[in-house]
Amino acid sequence: MLNEYAENNENSNLLPGTAELNEKNAQNKFYDTLFPHMSLDRIIVWISFFQILIYILSCLLSENLTVPNVDVLMFLGATYGPSIKQGELWRLLFPIFLHANWWHLIINIICILNLGLVIETKYKKKRFLLIYFLSGFIGNTLTTICNPCQLAVGASTSGFGLIGCSIMEIFLAWKNLSKKAQNYYMFNISIFLVFFLFVSFSPTVDFFGHIGGFVCGAFLACHYNKFLGYDMYTQKREKNSEKNSGKKIEKKKIAKKIKLLIIFQECLHYGFASICALIIFYLPLRLFVLNMPCEFV
């Protein structure tokens, strides 16, 4: 994907979707920074609308205009170990549409829109939806394994998947990003990451869900950009060799570095994939073999 972008754009040193960061006439407004590529054509915008509607519905069913009660969240599909043990597997996915309060909803929507709009622009709808929903699924699965008695809701599992995807992609291509693009990514991701890590230690926040979502997002970033690092490294070296045609570049050193990059990225790719697979395959063991010290709410 990156190679196709590089062939068709002059700003080939940027990740897809970041070319506008270098445009002289780009609008440097707070809104554009917070919600880049905002458009009703983006599926993440409609997902956010749907989450707001579901939250309003949960409040109406609770006969409370501000906060839904536990019984309603349970009815609408919150993650809860004993219920999942009874075969209600949709509880591993539905919680990403549910929220505990307005503050919870607003913070999650800001995060998923800020990162999701850029990621969807780069990967298109199908791949983006896989990142979003699979991260939420893996996050809720890890919550069920590590804390089966906790009633968990929130889109932050998917939000952390987007954070993991963005951080891994930036890590793989950091040296090839423009300074402005580096600052843009680090500013946005740092704010959300610090905030989520801070609130993750609250007893009411799903810490394990955040970890699971992050790992899944990082895995899919490695999968979609499997050759990102050494492909971009090769392109950069070729450009340098053209500029410095009088200097000899040792091909063996270049080949060695590329080989090391390949090995490193393969380790990341299969490492994150193995963790995701382990989480999924361990779930039946946690539900049906190990003791679950809680009953139905």
UniProtKB/TrEMBL annotation:
Against Pfam families, the record matches this protein to:
Rhomboid
Q: What is its EC number?
A: 3.4.21.105
Where does it live in the cell?
A: Membrane
Peptidase S54 rhomboid domain boundaries: 87-222
GO terms for cellular component = membrane
Q: How does it sit in the membrane?
A: Multi-pass membrane protein
EC main group: hydrolase
Which UniProt keyword terms apply here?
Answer: Hydrolase, Membrane, Protease, Serine protease, Transmembrane, Transmembrane helix
> GO molecular function of the protein, one example?
serine-type endopeptidase activity
Q: Which InterPro entries match?
A: Peptidase_S54_rhomboid-like, Peptidase_S54_rhomboid_dom, Rhomboid-like_sf
Statement: the UniProt record of this protein carries the keyword Membrane: yes
- Catalytic activity reported: Cleaves type-1 transmembrane domains using a catalytic dyad composed of serine and histidine that are contributed by different transmembrane domains
The Gene Ontology biological process annotation of the record reads:
proteolysis
The organism's superkingdom is given as Eukaryota
Leader sequence segment: none
- Give the transmembrane ranges: 43-65, 102-119, 128-145, 151-172, 184-201, 207-227, 260-283
Family to which the UniProt record says this protein belongs: Belongs to the peptidase S54 family.
> Per its database record, what is this protein's job?
Serine protease involved in intramembrane proteolysis.
What's the name of the protein? Rhomboid-like protease
Per the UniProt record, the source organism is Plasmodium vinckei lentum
Lineage of this protein's species? Eukaryota, Sar, Alveolata, Apicomplexa, Aconoidasida
